[in-house]
Structure formats: C-alpha cells, structure tokens
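Q: What does the assembled structure look like for these inputs?
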Amino acid sequence: MNALKCFRKVGGVVAVALGVTLLAVAWGHAQTDPLPSWNGTAPKKAIVAFVEKVTKEGSPDFVPVAERIATFDNDGTLWAEQPMYFQLAFALDRVKALAPQHPEWKDKEPFASLLKGDVKGALAGGEPALAQIVMATHAGMTTEEFDQIVTDWLATAKHPTTKQPYTAMVYQPMLELLAYLRANGFKTFVVSGGGIDFMRPWTEKVYGVPPEQVVGSSIKTKFEWRDGKPVLVRLPELNFIDDGAGKPVGIQLHIGRRPIAAFGNSDGDLPMLQWTTAGRGARLALLVHHTDAAREWAYDRTSATGRLDKALDEATAKGWTVVDMKNDWKVIYPFEKP
Amino acid sequence: MNALKCFRKVGGVVAVALGVTLLAVAWGHAQTDPLPSWNGTAPKKAIVAFVEKVTKEGSPDFVPVAERIATFDNDGTLWAEQPMYFQLAFALDRVKALAPQHPEWKDKEPFASLLKGDVKGALAGGEPALAQIVMATHAGMTTEEFDQIVTDWLATAKHPTTKQPYTAMVYQPMLELLAYLRANGFKTFVVSGGGIDFMRPWTEKVYGVPPEQVVGSSIKTKFEWRDGKPVLVRLPELNFIDDGAGKPVGIQLHIGRRPIAAFGNSDGDLPMLQWTTAGRGARLALLVHHTDAAREWAYDRTSATGRLDKALDEATAKGWTVVDMKNDWKVIYPFEKP
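A:
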C-alpha cells in the first residue's frame, strides 16, 4: 500500500468513526432538553417556537445576534417576593444592625416600630416611611462598602418560611430560560424595580447576568476623595425609579435598544411588555402567574406585593404567554431538584 | 502494511504537515501587528505590555475576562473635536433646519445670532444659551425620531475643514486599539460627555461598540402613548451630565464595576482616570495629547474645547501613558491610509 492508499484506508476508518460520532452528537442533542423544569405545556412551546423562529437564518423573523435583547424583571419573575420584597427584608435587618449607632431611632418613626418588631406599624407610614428606611440603610457609605454589606447579608440571612438563603429562592425554570436564551445568542438583562446596586453583587453568580446588564432603581452617588483615595459615596437622594412606566425609560437609558423578549410578573412590568411587543417583527412577552400556594405562593389581583391585575387582562387580550406556575413548572426552586 | 502501520505512516505525514502549519501560524502571528498605525514608541509598548500582563493566566496581574472593562472618552479621544464638538455642529445645523417652524427665533437669542451665521455671538450667552440650543434641537421628538434625525444628519453633513463626513474623522490608531482590546477579551465602552442618544445610532458601526455599551449625557424621557402606540418622548429637561466627576458616576450607574483601562484626552476625563487607576492590580490610564497641527490640531492647556491641563500634570506625576499624536501615530484618520 502506498501512502495515498493508506490515506484512503485510514480515511474510511475515520469517516465511519466520524459518522458514529455525529450520530451520537445528534442523538445527544435530541435528548438534551434545554428547559427540563418546564412541562410541555403552552408556555414552553411558545418560548421554543419564538427562539427557533428568530434564530433561523433566512426566515422572515430572523433577528441578528446583536439585536437579541431579552429583559427580565427580578422580584417575582426570577426570584420570590413573598412575604415581602427581599430587599425590604435586607433594609429591616440593616435597621436592627445599625440601631446601636442611632439611639434617636428609639423614639422616631418608622424606626421605633420596626425596632419593636412591628413591621406593619412601621410601614403604615406609606412611601415616606419606606423612603426613610431605604435612605437610612442604603445611603451614606461608598459603593464598595454597600456591595460588601449586601454580600455579607446574603451570606447569612435566611428566608422566614423556607429557611433558605434568599439567593436560593430563584426559579429553576427561569434559570434554564436565561441559559437557553444566551445559548441562542441573546443578551439577557435584569430590569427591576429593585435597587441596581442591591442586585449587582450577586446577579452574575446566580443568574449569569453581569453587573453591566442590570437595570434598576437607584439613588444618586457622588465622586469624592476620602483618605487620599477616590470613592463614590451613596447619597440619600432618589435618582431613578425603574418600575412601571420607568422600565421602558430605564431600558432606553441603559440598553439603548428595544428588547425583542420581555419577562415579568406584575402590573409594574406592563409598560416594559407593551414597549417590547410594540416593535416590529417577532416578539415574546411572558408573565409569570403565581398560582402555586403549595410550592410557592398564590397571589395576583389584590396582592400588595407583585399585584398582577391590568397586565393579566392585557396578556389575555393580546395573547401574551402566561405561565401558570402550578401547572407549567415541574420544580420551583433549585433546592427542590431530585 | 496493516491499519496500525498505516496510521503511523499517515500520522508521520500529518505530524510534519501540522508542524509546518504551526510554524506558518506562528510566523503569521509575528507578522500581524494588531496596532499597525502606532509607531513603536512608549505608548504602544505600554499598551501591549499591559494587555499581555492582564491576559496571561497564572500571572499575578491576570484579570478574568468578565472584569476586563475598558472605557473610552469620545470627543478628542476616538474622534476629532475641532473647531467645535461635532454634536454642537449638529445642533447648529438643526436650528437652521427647524427655523421655518420657529418664526419667533428671528428675534430671540441665541437663535437670532445663529441664524445670521454668528455662532460666536450666539454662544456668548454661555451655558444658558447652549442649553437653549440643545433643548430646542434634542427634545420634543420620540427616541426613534431622534435616532433617525442623527442618522440622516451624519449621512450628509461634512466637516468644515476636511470636508469629510464626521464619522470618518475617527482616529485609526484608536480603532485598532479598540479591536485589539476586544480580541483580548475586553469589553469596550464609550464614556463621553456627549449625548448618549447622539452617539448610539453610529457607535456600533464605527467603533464596534453596541448601544448598551455607550455611557453619556442625557435628557429625561417619558413613556407615553401616541396614535395608539407606546413611545418614549425626549423632554427638555437635563437628566445627567457625564463629564468630569460625572464620569465615574456614569460608569458606576451603567457598568457597575471599575474599569481596568481608561482612555481620555482632557481634564473632563481626569476623574475617570483617577477612578480607574485607584483600583487594585494592573491598570492602564492613557491620554491622547493633540500635538499635530499639520495632520489634526494642536491644543491643550488653554483650549476652550478639550482643555488638557490638570490631567496632563497628573499624568506626568503618576506616570500615565501620554500619546503624542505627532510622534506616536503613523496615521490619524482611516481616510489617510495608503
């Protein structure tokens, strides 16, 4: 046999081996469901159909990678939000931690009620009371100090009913959805009413969303020098509320282009879904409906946290995808996985 | 020869072929200079040394890809800024274009002077006059309409002295630098005092920087419904000035982590460079010094546009990299390339 024949002979062996490998890979792909925690109901079908449509080159619905922007609300969409927003739990814990430095709080509302354990009484003061709690706990330190405070709190705080760390109470099906979209060329953003700097210390690790892809509410910061080093100090002054009609505004300011897919769970997400679906071409708008009182919580039209009322009506009218958590999700949290 | 021998024989041939290929690749690499428009002077050496250091796994200066954030000023750093900021030229052209709809401008400053061709007289009113011009030309329309207005202007407007389109007056060496950093895992951001929505329509095409990686000054926008469709309307109200001490603030708000490399050309960039270099580990701070009156412009400590005074002193004191455009750059603009 000369070298050429050798090549041919070996080539044949390689070709067979390659064929077997390709078959195995194809089979592997068919076997690998990117959304294993989703039941095969309508929402999963709608998600997969949308992704296949916009990623298929030559199709009329094809969207170039650069324009595959997907925005996710956080509270109630990516992680739980009951019995209160987790950031509020953080603020309340901080009031307790800071109380020794603030003897005046004993006689000053809303702090006095809070320190007596009366959360409801403290929050009876409405938005001004809430603003006082937020500013007392979120401002005054540098951005790096705040990052560390959030990180330290998350490392030890436990949710009152599940006794799990708060970052464990993320929705497994949504983690799979984030990864599935990214595997298909999407850039995934968090667009939340929550504090932008409360989320950034952990979104990369928990959601795979880096700090620069987090949009949220903010207070003002100021560049100044402390001990000969430049710092950014967090001021007790509101900068932006990234909720309701603020969400499209935040999206424009931070992202600068319209998402083609948006995910929310409450009326605060309605303008984001309207803005997203009003663009040309294929669009996906999805609402997570909290229907599972056994595994999570069941709430919608009358809930103080995460009210879903007008957005539910509009989703029905416009044919948006609504996830029925009880029926559409096999598991809720990663820690439930067998 | 049995199959095994065949494999060995073919293997030898393949090994030789592979060796030749690898040599060719290595040679090709050695031949391909990622910064061909830079002379081999100190700035180029500093850039390459920095990039090699932070990308070398196992080195004490190694920086993970996710943290390789580089921020670039725009006016005077990525494109020219003389005889006036290009965005100001845009605003002046818009005043002329809009004049027929504003008969009252004939008798109202700063518009009256502008329409008579007296730019200096119009701008004699200082910041309030400038603010009036900006709001009259940048607000009132939707974000999509403004995007189109900028795009249309750039398609036809020519620079007064070079007669080139404004987007042709970008610095070839900086385009190479942007590409070189991205090829080494950096995420490149524009952080400019210019209008965020004035830059976004073209930064992706011209710099390879997508809209979501542009940070800039902004006016407020409002979500509302027009003709049954949701729109974002640009309001004549300042939102944020991304200049001077505002740059670290803008970086924190949009990016949420500290850059490891920052590039500027004026005192307005000094806080960004201070913020960048105050972080731990290897850092690169670079100033473009406009020293080439023949090929571009020569200006620094006394220029009204792009003043470089305090930052030049601090660069000298701290050993930051200063580009002498005349001596360090082989070409200035892409249209000069042979």
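The first strand of chain A starts at residue 69 and ends at 72.
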